[in-house]
Design brief:
mainly alpha, 2 helices, 75% helix
Length: 63
């Protein structure tokens, strides 16, 4: 089941990247919208990562 979910996420990410490239080359309106959504999601993830520390929750401190 987990493999199915991860495969779905991979397909969505690859499709978003394809839309970004296609929109940069002058693709249709829906591809530009999908590209905008993909870039916005990337910005949100990047902002969350820089604000929240590392992805695994390790703050680098010694216990």
């Amino acid at each position: 089941m987990l493999l199915l979910v991860l495969s779905g996420v991979l397909v969505v990410v690859a499709g978003g990247c394809a839309c970004v490239v296609w929109a940069a080359r002058g693709g249709p309106r829906w591809a530009r919208g999908a590209a905008r959504a993909t870039l916005a999601a990337g910005e949100l993830l990047r902002a969350g990562r820089s604000r929240g520390g590392s992805a695994n929750g390790d703050d680098g401190g010694d216990d």
